[in-house]
Amino acid sequence: MTIIGLDDTDSRTAGMCTTYVGHRIADELGDAGHTVDRVVLFRLNPAVEHKTRGNACVAVHTDATPHEAFRTATEIVTETAVFDDEQTNPGVAVTTDSTAPLKAFTVSTVRKLKTKAEARNALPADALTQTYGTGQGIVGATAALGAHRSRTDWTYELIAYRQQPHWGTERSVNAESVFETSKQLHPTIWDTTDSVEGDIVAVPRTPCPVLYGIRGDTPAAVKQAHDDICSEPVATTQLFQTNQGTDMHLQDASIPAVSDDSAYRLSGTVTTDPETRRGGHVFFAVSDGDSTIQCVAFEPTKRFRETVRQLRCGDVLTVCGEVSDGTVKLEKLRVEKLTTTERCVPRCPNCKNTMESAGSESGYRCRSCKTQAEGKIQQSVERQLECGWHEVPPCARRHIAKPLVRGGYQAETHPET
Ligand code: ZN
Predict the structure, then answer these.
(1) Does 15 have pLDDT greater than 60?
(2) Which of 172-177's residues contact partners 24+ apart within 8 Å by CB, and which partners?
(3) Cα of 342 from ligand 1 centre, angstroms
(4) How many angstroms does the Cα of residue 346 sit away from the middle of ligand 1?
(5) Ligand 1 centre and the CA of 365: distance in Å?
(6) What is the pLDDT of residue 361?
């Protein structure tokens, strides 16, 4: 088997899309009489998106010879990639060897920032490569070669592409049909819509050739959803095997071990009450006793912030998300234990008014009744927040993040749909 690895050829400004280039390559090979076994859409470290770009790669598995596969891939990349966009630095790699070191490189590309040199070192001896621009594309292209061996839990995305004259114009997709199929096929398909925001998550807003993408657990379900959706004419479709919705980017770690640009699953106790700052972002801190880390639910995570605002000092959590600038950007969290008491200033036993501080180290007193108390008292608090897993809504979900509806969690879940 020959594997073609293709790095992110997306252009934000001109609207090209890696999945489309992958589809074109698969199509061209099919037209030439070759078998295409699968096309893999593989999400890499989401932290890369804001750094070097290239947070997705595509692999095409075919029976074409390596040279023919390489020629087809480079021709199509040259023809379609938007080289005017300086952020677009595609890479192509082709091999027939999918050995273990490649798998390890692929997994680490999902979890860390990898360099061009590291990618070159991981490439099999028989690899044919072509890079453009800065050459950064070799990282994703190499990662794509090992993608299919890097995991066993696969999900699927069916992408419907627009007819070329429509690219860049407003998309015409019947919202009712999308909400209906989303309801019918949920949770086998997920992140198609956001039922609370009323958003159609499956339809992108960028000027790319994608009309919509349906993500789900089985090829049959995503195809069914595609059949059910009414829209402008679809030019072509491609089924991708993906690592979307899997949390493959998350690593278990302790707070002192984290570093920027990787994503983690961390345990800790809330040490500062949630604070809403300018822009509507909600911050709090968790500690594991020795180390403390700041966590944030950004404004675009919408109603998830309501959950976060209910946290209190003393709550025991698992938090998940990418660390950047020393802060965990929350994707989901598990409330393991809720504190049911809080320390507060005592009330006067006589007049029931809140006492006042009697000065540092001197406790509290009631000025009118002259009663005294030694210090703060423990008082029980009512909690509305429920234990278990809470997550950001579909409209704010990263492609790689696992929606709670996919199951497999060791605790109760509160899925957002
Ligand atoms: Zn009093």
Answers:
(1) no
(2) 172/231, 172/232, 173/200, 173/203, 173/211, 173/212, 173/229, 173/230, 173/231, 173/232, 174/229, 174/230, 174/231, 175/200, 177/228, 177/229, 177/230, 177/231
(3) 22
(4) 11
(5) 8
(6) 82
